[in-house]
Structures are given as C-alpha cells and as structure tokens.
C-alpha cells in the first residue's frame, strides 16, 4: 500500500466513524416510548372524531332540504 492509498483509507475511516457516531446519537430521538405511543393513540382518536364530524357536516350541507331551508331564511331576511 502506498502513501496515497493509506491517506484515502484514513479519510474513509474518519468519515465512517463520524457517520456511525451521528447515527448512534440521533437514534435516541426516534425511539417510541410508552408516552409518545399513548399521545399518538390519543391524536389518532381525535383525528377520527374530527373526520366523522366533517362527514356529518358535509352530509348536512349537501342535503337538498338544507338548501331549501337556507333559501327560506334568505327570503325571511
């Protein structure tokens, strides 16, 4: 191995070490804990409730009787 190859290997090992060190530092951030899992479950439940409310509102607004009632309100005003 000549000097050029030795320098390239040292640089590659240095970058490899930094990459592994950064990966090990950052993997702690993305662990799922019981607290975050329960918070996610609560958010999913809340999202499902909101989606159901939007579906009901869409049904009410697209109903023909709603349009008729709105026209009667406009005439009364």
Notes on the protein architecture:
This protein is mainly α and 77 residues long. The chain is 86% helix and 0% strand. It starts with a helix and ends with a helix.
Keywords:
77 residues, mainly alpha, 3 helices, elongated
Binned, the helix content reads: over 70%
Largest sheet entry: none
What is the approximate shape?
A: elongated
Mean of pLDDT: 86
**What's the alpha carbon Rg, rounded to whole Å?**
30 Å
| Helix/sheet category | mainly alpha
Number of helices: 3
Helix-strand sequence: HHH
State the end-to-end distance. 93 Å
Proportion in β-strands: under 5%
* Count of β-strands: 0
The low-pLDDT segments are none
Would you kindly provide a brief summary of this structure?
The protein is mostly helical and 77 residues long. The chain contains three helices and no strands.
Write the layout of secondary structure elements.
Blueprint: H1 3-26, H2 34-62, H3 64-76
């Amino acid at each position: 191995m000549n000097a050029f190859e030795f320098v390239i290997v040292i640089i590659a090992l240095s970058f490899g070490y930094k990459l592994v060190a950064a990966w090990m530092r950052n993997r702690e951030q993305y662990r799922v804990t019981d607290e975050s899992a329960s918070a996610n479950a609560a958010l999913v439940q809340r999202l499902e409730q909101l989606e159901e409310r939007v579906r009901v509102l869409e049904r009410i607004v697209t109903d023909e009787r709603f349009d008729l009632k709105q026209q009667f309100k406009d005439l009364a005003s």
